[in-house]
Amino acid sequence: MEEILDNIYNSFNPQPLPAGDPAYVDCKEVRGDVDIVTDLGKRIHRSKDITCYLYAGYRGSGKTTELNRLKAYLESKKFHVVYFDADIEDISTQDVEYEDILLACTRHIVEQIKEVDPKPISDWLNDQWNSLKEFFDQQVKLNDLKIEAQIQYFTKLTATIRTEPSQRQRIREKVKPHTETLISALNKFIDAAKDKLPEERKQLIVIVDSLDRIVPNFKDNGRSNHDEIFLDRHEQLKALRCHVLYTVPISMVYSKSSTEVKDNYNFTQILPSIMVKSSDQESYQPGLDKLKEAIHQRVKPHSGELDLETQIFESKEILERMCLMSGGYMRDLIQLAQEAVNRTDELPIQEKAVQRAIDELRSVYQRAVEEPQWEALAYVHLTKEIKNENFYRSLLFNRCLLEYRKSAEHSKNASTWYDVHPILLNTPKLEKAIETLKG
User: 215 FRET partner, CA 20 to 30 A, in 59, 60, 400, 419?
Assistant: First the structure.
């Protein structure tokens, strides 16, 4: 029994799934018919022009899993895909500027396309070496190194930006006046790549993941760091001579600049939460069934013929309550399940273990809400709408507010609506705020 529980516990590791993983569950019918292959993959594949798309959603909603599917689809269509997760080695999500992203793109494009001579990039680095060498061993003479060794200094630059706050801004100040020449050098490399890549890989796309994790910082004029990166520098973000897809914070799409986002980029795809209840607060069984299927697919390799609703969990009601409390947000579902298993010594998982997991998650979300924000949460719960204010964008970013989408197949018209994360419902502060608004 202990080995089974250990294996089930580890099956709920909240890591993205690779394309084709048997644990993957297609949830598009309970996400407003949103499908990354149809909505983005086919657009990119069919376009005769270079495209630049944005992909938004909550952190932990399954974006990277969907991007893995997109990558596999495009590779099947003869694309060379340069994918990287910027949050692993390149940026500090607490403090990001455009220059950080450009340096990261340069590094990964050159590292992942080894068939092409990186001389344009090394030439740029040599031109800027006098101003940049202070961040490295100043005894190094760049010209004495092989080109491959020179390029490694881009890795060192992005690593310094990510890990050394004291150096971060100084590097940006050195790079900022020369971003146009770096883009030009990178485009020369991209053009050469298109010529040198094998015939079956002539198309090129760069996918930059985890920019959605950039923490929003608002200035006195109401503009945010998100505006500065994705709007003020949109021409530079789009300047690469290949297809590009950037992940962006979901709060960016709902800013007062949303029309600018629409005008400046080819298309923005939003990955909504899985609908677990209707806008009139009725449980939505198709969504709950999808979440139960996601849990079953993870435990099945370790649980043999055990029934999910009576032998893994004590009852269907307990399992569905856990699914409902996740809000249709995949990472919360996985973490709730893992914590419930952690509090279990013998199957089936009891109501007490599930409730303890729910209580712990509720405490996390309650701490994320600032005192004045309870009224905003109450407003959304009563109206199913959000206001175009920074208050609401912050609540979207930290997932206290969730977006749901109903496809036209399930209603007369496709519709989007918003609600408080179910984990916060029935908390005293929210109930008080709701009563106050009702008058």
Answer: 419
Question: CA 269, CA 43: separation in Å to the nearest integer?
Answer: 11
Q: Which residue has the tokens 């006098």?
A: 130
Cα gap 417→339, rounded to integer Å: 30
Which residues neighbour 25 within 8 Å (Cβ) at sequence distance 6 or greater?
290, 293, 294, 297
- Place 345 in a pLDDT band, splitting at 50, 70 and 90: very high
The domain made up of 35-271 has a fold known as Rossmann fold (3.40.50)
* pLDDT computed for residue 138 by the predictor: 65
The per-residue pLDDT for 1 is 82
Q: How many CB atoms sit inside 10 A of residue 293's CB?
A: 14
Q: Quote the Cα angle for 347-350-354, to 5°.
A: 120
CB-based contacts of 318, cutoff 8 Å, min separation 6: 349, 350, 351, 354
Of 272, 287, 228, nearest to 100 (Cα)? 228
Measured on CA atoms in the order 208, 37, 272, 258, is the torsion positive or negative? positive
**Helix residue ranges, H only, 304-350:** 316-325, 330-342
According to DSSP, residue 312 is labeled: I
What integer pLDDT is reported at residue 277 of this predicted model?
93
Mean pLDDT of 115-140: 88
Separation between Cα atoms, residue 326 and residue 333, nearest integer Å = 5
Going from N- to C-terminal start, the domains of the chain cover 1-34+272-439, 35-271
What residues contact 394, with CB distance under 8 A and at least 6 apart? Answer: 216, 251, 373
User: Which long-range contacts (C-beta less than 8 Å, at least 24 apart) are formed by 304-309?
Assistant: 306/347
Q: Strands across the sheet with 243-249, in order?
A: 79-85, 203-209, 243-249, 52-57, 267-271
Question: Is the sign of the CA dihedral 221, 227, 229, 235 positive or negative?
Answer: negative
Helix locations, 176-315, DSSP H: 179-196, 225-227, 234-237, 250-253, 258-264, 285-303
The mean predicted confidence, pLDDT, of the chain is 93
Q: Which pLDDT belongs to residue 139? A: 72
Residue 267: strand pairing partners: 53
Using 50, 70 and 90 to split pLDDT, how confident is the model at 27?
very high
pLDDT at 81: 98
- Strand 415-420, strand 401-406: pairing: antiparallel
pLDDT at position 429 over 60:
yes
Residue 34 near residue 414 (C-beta atoms within 8 A): no
| Cβ–Cβ < 8 Å for 249, 388 | no
Which DSSP state fits 350? Answer: P
